[in-house]
Amino acid sequence: MSVSYTCHELPKNAEDLSTSLDRYVSFRLDALVNAAGQVAATYTYESTFTRQMWMSRLLDPKKHHLVVVAHETAAHGLESLDNGEWVGMMSLLGPLSKFEYFGSDSESSEIKSDDEEVRFDMSSVYINPSHRGGEATLQMFEQVLNVIRSLADDLLSPPPGTIGSARIRGTIAPSNTNGFGFQEALGFRSIDWWSKAQAYRAIDFAEVIAPEEEAPELYHVKDQRVIEHVLEC
């Protein structure tokens, strides 16, 4: 039987979130074990979180946690967060202001205002190995981009006659050529190289970085490919 995919943001109110929390925590921790070394988050760190810490993180209005769900075609019309197999996840930090995203370059006249463009840093991108590859991966990422478009539509207020946009940035290890190939096919492009410390700070994970005097390579070796995609909304 063929499979289709949908993408859903976890609820942003405590009552609705509580029904999905245990399943999300279990799925995420399993994913961090399977993706060790490929994402900034780690099982060692997040497995110490209390339920209240998870709730606080997931209800943060600046953080959006997306889940990809696989559905058998027989379930057509019944697709929801709770009806199907959870097979992927992604986290988004944003919306980010021009200065938060571009830093000292934010005053450039070529950069859109915050009313015209919404910006996110993405992290913890994971797809279950049994669902990776080919059309399945492309379909999943297309669903993720649709959710980002929906978030942008709710946040943007571009002047009449102008087109709004959503800008999504992330990092990917250079060894992950398959992952970059799929993201490139969806419109992502390589724009820079960062150190791991830069990458962790961008997604609000600074607390997991060792001090520079203990691990200088995290601060000075630029081994993280920075990728970006701009969507019209």
Blueprint (SSEs and pairs):
Elements: E1 3-9, H1 14-34, H2 43-46, H3 51-59, E2 63-72, E3 85-93, H4 98-102, E4 117-127, H5 134-155, E5 165-172, H6 177-185, E6 189-194, H7 196-202, H8 217-220, E7 224-232
Parallel strand pairs: 4-5
Antiparallel strand pairs: 1-2, 2-3, 3-4, 5-7, 6-7
Helix pairs in contact: 1-3
Compact overview of the structure:
With 233 residues, the chain is an alpha+beta fold. Helices cover 35% and strands 26% of the residues. The longest helix has 22 residues, at 134-155.
What does it look like?
With 233 residues, the protein is of the alpha+beta class. Helices cover 35% and strands 26% of the residues. The chain has eight helices and seven strands. The chain has helices at 14-34, 43-46, 51-59, 98-102, 134-155, 177-185, 196-202, 217-220, and strands at 3-9, 63-72, 85-93, 117-127, 165-172, 189-194, 224-232. A seven-stranded mixed beta sheet has the order 1-2-3-4-5-7-6, sandwiched between helices. α5 (134-155) links the parallel β4 (117-127) and β5. The longest helix is centred in the middle third of the chain and has 22 residues, at 134-155. The radius of gyration is 18 Å and the shape is globular. The two termini are 34 Å apart.
What are the defining features of this structure?
single chain, 233 residues, alpha+beta, seven-stranded mixed beta sheet, 7 strands, globular
Q: What amount of the residues lies in strands?
A: 25-35%
Low-confidence stretches: none
Helix content: 25-40%
Number of helices: 8
Order of helix and strand elements from N to C terminus: EHHHEEHEHEHEHHE
Alpha-beta classification:
alpha+beta
